[in-house]
């Protein structure tokens, strides 16, 4: 996320160089945005412990449990690039308030749902709000903070992510066990969302946006949404079994979804204002950062998902104990994100830092590839700590690299594209990876053997990143830097 006070202009720069905001100015906007981000991320984690109670009350079986998570994921994935494109053309103060209001409405709908269908509808609204909060926050901070200074503030976002990822399930589990019941879990994100909504009305000033000229490519957005939905239905459908995916209905989802995505790319390439900036994907910096982001996001969610299953199924730990054992992952992520961001801001050197992060990520995955039910618990703790340290260096800093090479008018779309591909990588990859492992939580070795290979791909992508200087001002990047 990102920045600091005044940047020093070049001696030959004209007097119109955009002045960077002060540290105080940034914090007045950043803190309520972090509250908004916390509410959004909490909506995706605090409800996890409520799933068994939901299934029991609505008698929906395992399908209901799967789709309570999947519909929010679908809505999040498909709405993120649309919100990002909107944030480049319209007033971001209005958009972040709209996203927070959407998230709050979805939370209330989910908590008050009288039936499973109503709960799923509420989760869709929550997912749209989550996508909006993340995408617009990236756009606001990208326009507020120069790329070199973004590292100073990215640690704040990592801490918020760590608290929501680690604390959300613990809080949800505690609420389920109280007389308040599972419905309170879905209502929890509404409180910080409303607080952020009220605060941002005072602290986030209206900014003039470039709303003239081209309009958003809504046809591309519809095709992209349809293709992504069908692809994720294919991946997550039929209980995650190969026989379901390879059946005629499953093949139909895959074929039609693929055709829609190809059509979306064709339409987006001709659009003057694409929802996903496909023209940027041809640039080495953007292509490499997308690969790095996908691999790191995949590794993070794989650790949370498969290690949680291993610790509970193979080692018979409780959900609370599992959350505690995975704490080094999120603490390592927060610590390394904060420290690396400060170092990048101070010295302006990022390449060696990202290479080190990719190496730590590889070693963490490789150590986990040797974890079975007989491995000592300290091996898991050291491995997840290394993995968290590596991922923390990579996840937030790659967003600054992408925003470093685009004009301010494309900050929102470029940043949202990174999050979109990261989310899609995890959403598509995790169910596919799950089919390669045996049941009852003892497939950790095979999962992280695959992840160690993917981590090498991420390391190669980091090595191929052009070693460009991060801009210390908010002015557009020169053409040579793109």
Account of the 3D structure:
73% of the residues lie in helices and 0% in strands. The protein is mainly α and 482 residues long.
Number of helices: 19
C-alpha-based Rg, rounded: 22 Å
Described by the principal axes of the CA atoms, the overall outline is globular
The oligomeric state is single chain
User: What's the pLDDT, averaged over the residues?
Assistant: 80
Largest sheet: none
- The proportion of residues forming helix, as a percent range, comes to over 70%
Give, in order, the helices and strands.
HHHHHHHHHHHHHHHHHHH
Percent of residues in beta strands: under 5%
Structural class: mainly alpha
User: What gap, in angstroms, lies between the N and C termini?
Assistant: 20 Å
Write the layout of secondary structure elements.
Layout: H1 23-43, H2 51-58, H3 61-89, H4 92-111, H5 116-144, H6 147-176, H7 183-187, H8 190-203, H9 218-236, H10 242-245, H11 248-270, H12 284-314, H13 319-325, H14 327-347, H15 351-368, H16 377-395, H17 397-404, H18 411-434, H19 444-464
Helix pairs in contact: 1-5, 1-6, 1-8, 2-3, 3-5, 3-9, 3-18, 4-5, 4-8, 5-18, 6-13, 6-14, 6-17, 9-11, 9-18, 12-16, 12-17, 12-18, 12-19, 14-16, 15-16, 15-19, 17-18
């Amino acid at each position: 996320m990102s920045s600091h006070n005044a940047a020093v202009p070049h001696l030959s720069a004209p007097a119109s160089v955009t002045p960077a905001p002060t540290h105080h100015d940034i914090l007045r906007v950043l803190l309520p945005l972090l509250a908004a981000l916390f509410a959004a991320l909490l909506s995706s984690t605090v409800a996890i412990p409520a799933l068994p109670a939901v299934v029991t009350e609505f008698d929906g079986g395992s399908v209901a449990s799967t789709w309570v998570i999947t519909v929010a994921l679908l809505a999040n994935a498909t709405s993120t690039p649309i919100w990002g494109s909107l944030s480049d053309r319209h007033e971001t103060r209005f958009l972040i308030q709209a996203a927070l209001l959407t998230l709050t409405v979805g939370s209330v709908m989910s908590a008050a749902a009288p039936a499973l269908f109503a709960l799923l509808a509420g989760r869709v609204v929550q997912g749209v709000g989550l996508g909006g909060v993340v995408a617009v926050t990236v756009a606001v901070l990208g326009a507020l903070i120069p790329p070199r200074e973004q590292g100073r503030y990215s640690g704040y976002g990592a801490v918020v992510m760590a608290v929501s990822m680690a604390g959300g399930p613990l809080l949800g589990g505690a609420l389920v066990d109280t007389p308040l019941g599972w419905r309170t879990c879905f209502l929890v994100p509404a409180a910080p969302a409303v607080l952020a909504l009220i605060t941002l009305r005072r602290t986030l000033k209206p900014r003039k946006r470039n709303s003239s000229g081209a309009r958003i490519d809504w046809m591309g957005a519809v095709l992209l949404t349809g293709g992504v939905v069908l692809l994720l239905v294919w991946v997550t459908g039929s209980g995650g079994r190969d026989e379901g995916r390879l059946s005629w209905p499953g093949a139909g989802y895959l074929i039609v979804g693929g055709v829609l995505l190809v059509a979306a790319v064709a339409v987006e390439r001709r659009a003057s204002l694409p929802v996903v900036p496909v023209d940027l994907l041809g640039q080495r910096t953007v292509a490499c950062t997308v690969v790095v982001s996908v691999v790191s996001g995949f590794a993070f969610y794989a650790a949370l998902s498969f290690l949680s299953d291993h610790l509970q199924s193979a080692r018979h730990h409780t959900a609370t104990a599992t959350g505690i054992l995975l704490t080094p992952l999120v603490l390592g992520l927060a610590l390394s994100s904060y420290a690396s961001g400060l170092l990048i801001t101070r010295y302006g050197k990022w390449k060696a830092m990202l290479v080190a992060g990719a190496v730590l990520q590889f070693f963490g995955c490789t150590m986990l590839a040797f974890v079975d039910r007989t491995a000592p618990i300290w091996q898991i703790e050291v491995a997840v700590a290394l993995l968290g340290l590596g991922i923390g260096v990579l996840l937030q800093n790659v967003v600054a690299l992408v925003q470093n090479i685009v004009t301010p008018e494309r900050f929102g779309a470029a940043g949202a594209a990174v999050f979109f591909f990261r989310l899609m990588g995890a959403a598509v990859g995790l169910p596919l990876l799950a089919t390669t492992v045996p049941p009852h939580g003892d497939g950790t070795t095979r999962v992280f053997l695959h992840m160690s290979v993917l981590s090498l791909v991420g390391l190669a992508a980091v090595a191929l990143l052009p070693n460009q200087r991060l801009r210390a001002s908010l002015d557009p990047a020169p053409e040579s830097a793109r």
